[in-house]
Amino acid sequence: MNDSKISVRYAKALFESAADKGSLDEARKDMLHLQELCKLEEFQYFLQSPVMKTSHKRKLLDDILENKTHALTSGLLDIVFKNNRELYIPGIARNFEALYKKHNGIKSAVLLSAVAMDDKARIKIEKLLGDSFKARVDLSIEEKKELIGGFVIRVEDQQYDASVANKLKTIKKQLLN
User: Which of 20, 45, 71 has the alpha carbon at shortest distance from 79?
Assistant: First the structure.
């Protein structure tokens, strides 16, 4: 079975269970915490370790999470480890977040900027994007010096590039032609 299908199925099962029980926010908090853990190289190695028993991995994960996960999340993790699917935890967490955002009408946006942005500018940009897309916007900002100036903004599958680097590349193409 395709690994993305596996991740989607587990994420969907957790999402539907949490929605039925009114625990979406608690499950999301757990999944966001797992996403942060999955960014750590050591945690990835821990999940992929062929030497460590699955039951031991499950116990260690409980210790890492300090047994503070919601009952639904804990139940899902029990099933994931029972079925030896722990490698799919990063995908499950990512797919759960996508389902949560879709359910709540939240659009993901990334702003790449040549200079650091303050909170005031961030709030204005979120509001502007929210008004444009008629949705709540979850904006993350990254500083990229190689843009030279300007910005690049991505909202889900749409991108607008107003960077100096892009303008220079366009001018270079025109000059070479």
Answer: 71
